[in-house]
User: What shape does this take?
Amino acid sequence: MGALPRRWRWVAAHLAGCVGTARIVHGVHLPADTIGGWSFGALIGLAALEITDGIRRRAP
Assistant: This one.
């Protein structure tokens, strides 16, 4: 979501939530699978933002 403008990030987060919920409703995944996926995705996203912010701070 770091590539999106700040005002559009909520759309991506909402869409991810809807997809996860739909997968539970349709019986494709268990709730624990979906929560684990959301958590893992949030961790990866935060790590990517931290890395890109560090690179931007070091750029001349």
Summary: The chain has two helices and no strands.
